[in-house]
Design brief:
heterodimer, A: 305 residues, mainly alpha, B: 312 residues, 13 helices, 78% helix, 0% strand, flat
Chain lengths: 305, 312
């Protein structure tokens, strides 16, 4: 004979735990109808495939070989011509896709994760007697990081770490998480008084379990949008930092190509500049369109109306 | 009264935070300055003397307090590379940076407000779609691309060749205009997309409020609605946006623009200090900008409380 199990609050109405279930289905169908968003998704997918084929060694492997002449025009051997050092611009532009995805994925994933964790902690302990110092100190940390001008912060990190190749990534992660953190904090403050969280606390679930199983999954729409925005910001920042000599080392990126081209354009050679700009613009446009569509679909309250 | 006190305490804590971070990065973890100052073949006595001068023999907390003291008395030491007083370098370069960045910053925000208002007012029409579409495209173009493209189009023989390619030899108004135009246009183009989108969202949110609906029902004209009701009520988010974009746009922008065009402002000085490892300049610039930004935030908060009773 089966033992009768007393239904817990969570099993009585499972929809408490996954509250936005039907809303999420609507969001996906809304996303499928968003033409600009689909265009963005298509662009991003093409670039992702391109970067994967670089990763697997099918494309762009000869980015550092300098066997062409200086500033050769486009030809069968060099589809987009060569740069100042005789390197193939097409190969370099394609290889840079991989660099961009490496930086973008690393920075957006880690900064979103950090923002989610610290934001959730701050929101959870906001106004809790005896524990509100957690909220206070996380808010203070965000305020401090937001007050230091970003490029100066990167410069300071790069200066302190003297030539460490991940200085740029570290600086971006350390500053990008604050936006996500603030949004998640506000959302968690809203969610924590909802019934499904109250019932989880009532049956005595430990706080980390409540946060990871019940609270953070309900902020995934914010995290998704913020991750795409952080991706765009990371790639754009890489360009500036590489130009300033604080960015990518021992590799090639669109930022480094643009930095090279600042010399070349004054001599009337535009291939390097055009190739890097066009690739960069397309990828950023794709991500911006995608981020807008995601925001419209998943978080219409926050969307730009 | 209590909130004002809390505000001041919060500001002080923020100042301690930003100075502590810049102290950690620039002074504590920063590279050893000894051999940059006295060369490779120094005697033990010389080394000890320089260590004492630089304060390397003092404890952590003492050195942090020293750094705070330097920032608040503006006694910032001398540059490693030129030997000039850091405070006099800042005094010389700050006006250049302001003259360079302010026009673009102001015009960029004004245009953003105007375009955002047009788009918000005609929400859903083709002009709204055109403006938002252009904004997204603008947001997708890198600052560096805009600078290079404008330079080629406006200042070289490959384009219109109207303005000097780079540099800053300003004597009178016409030379100022000649040197400031291309950087200003770049700054406007790079900020306009973000500004327009932000302001549009603010105005759309504001114009869907009930009192606007009531005013409209009472027959207020569109212009009155926008100026008297929407713009006035959006002043707080608009000002906040402008204040908070100062570090990103003005300071980071000057770093890039001045480096690119070879203009002797604070950005160029900081960039040279980064590449040559000139610690006294770097720690002064990072510390001072962060502190002044915190001060601006505190002042802004006071003003909000005075202007808008909803916040207090």
């Amino acid at each position: 004979m089966k033992t009768l199990r007393a239904p817990t609050l969570l099993t009585v109405n499972p929809s408490y735990a996954f509250e936005p279930g039907p809303a999420r289905g609507r969001a996906w169908s809304k996303l499928r109808q968003d033409k600009a968003g689909l265009l963005g998704l298509a662009i991003v997918t093409v670039f992702l495939l391109l970067s994967l084929s670089v990763l697997f060694g099918w494309l762009g492997q000869d980015w550092s070989v300098a066997e062409g002449g200086r500033w050769e025009p486009a030809s069968v051997n060099h589809w987009l011509g060569t740069n100042m050092l005789g390197q193939d611009i097409f190969q370099r532009a394609v290889f840079s896709t991989r660099t961009a995805f490496e930086i973008g994925l690393l920075v957006s994933l880690l900064s979103t994760l950090l923002g989610a964790l610290l934001g959730a902690l701050a929101g959870w302990y906001h106004g809790k007697p005896g524990r509100s110092w957690v909220d206070g100190s996380i808010l203070w940390l965000m305020g401090v990081l937001d007050s230091i001008p970003f490029y100066l912060f990167v410069a300071a990190v790069a200066y302190a770490l003297q030539g460490w190749p991940w200085a740029m990534h570290l600086a971006m992660i350390a500053t990008f998480w604050t936006t996500t953190g603030r949004l998640i904090r506000a959302e968690v403050m809203r969610i924590k008084s909802r019934e499904f969280v109250l019932s989880a606390r009532a049956i005595g679930l430990p706080v980390p379990l409540i946060l990871f199983r019940h609270v953070l999954p309900n902020t995934s729409h914010i995290l998704l949008v913020q991750a795409t925005i952080a991706f765009v910001a990371a790639i754009k920042t890489e360009v500036i930092l590489s130009f300033l000599g604080l960015g990518v080392r021992d590799s090639v990126s669109w930022g480094l190509m643009l930095a090279e081209s600042t010399q070349e354009v004054l001599a009337g050679h535009f291939h390097n500049f055009l190739a890097a700009s066009l690739m960069l613009f397309l990828l950023l446009l794709g991500f911006n369109l995608l981020a807008d569509a995601l925001q419209d679909a998943f978080d219409p309250r926050q969307a730009s109306l | 009264m209590r909130t004002i006190l809390q505000q001041i305490i919060r500001g002080l804590l923020l100042i301690l935070g930003v100075t502590f971070v810049s102290f950690l990065l620039m002074v504590w973890f920063g590279p050893d300055q000894t051999y940059t100052l006295i060369g490779k073949n120094a005697t033990a006595d010389q080394i000890a003397e320089v260590h004492h001068q630089l304060g390397y023999d003092r404890p952590f907390s003492q050195r942090y307090l020293d750094y705070l003291g330097e920032l608040f008395t503006l006694d910032l030491g001398t540059s490693n590379s030129s030997g000039e007083q850091v405070s006099s370098i800042l005094k010389r370069t700050l006006p250049v940076s302001l003259a360079l960045m302010l026009p673009g910053f102001i015009i960029g925000n004004l245009l953003g407000v105007v375009l955002g208002m047009i788009a918000a007012f005609r929400k859903g029409t083709w002009s709204d779609r055109l403006i938002t579409g252009l904004s997204v495209s603008g947001m997708s173009i890198s600052f560096l691309i805009i600078i290079i493209a404008l330079q080629v189009l406006l200042s070289t023989p490959y384009g219109l060749n109207l303005f000097p390619v780079r540099g800053w030899h300003v004597e009178d108004l016409s030379s100022y205009l000649a040197y400031v135009t291309v950087p200003t246009l770049s700054l406007i183009m790079v900020t306009l997309g973000y500004n327009t989108r932000f302001y549009r969202a603010v105005f759309v949110a504001e114009s869907s409020r009930e009192h606007i609906l009531t005013a409209r029902a009472f027959g207020a004209s569109p212009a009155t609605l926008m100026w008297r009701h929407v713009l006035k009520n959006s002043l707080v988010p608009v000002t906040t946006r402008i204040l908070f974009s100062i570090p990103l746009v003005v300071i980071s922008g000057s770093l890039l623009i001045e480096t690119y065009f070879g203009i002797p402002g604070i950005g160029k000085v900081s960039f040279d200090a980064i590449t040559s490892g000139d610690q006294p300049i770097l720690k002064a610039v990072v510390g001072l900008t962060a502190v002044s930004f915190v001060l601006v935030q505190i002042v802004a908060d006071f003003i909000y409380r005075l202007v808008d009773p909803r916040i207090a």
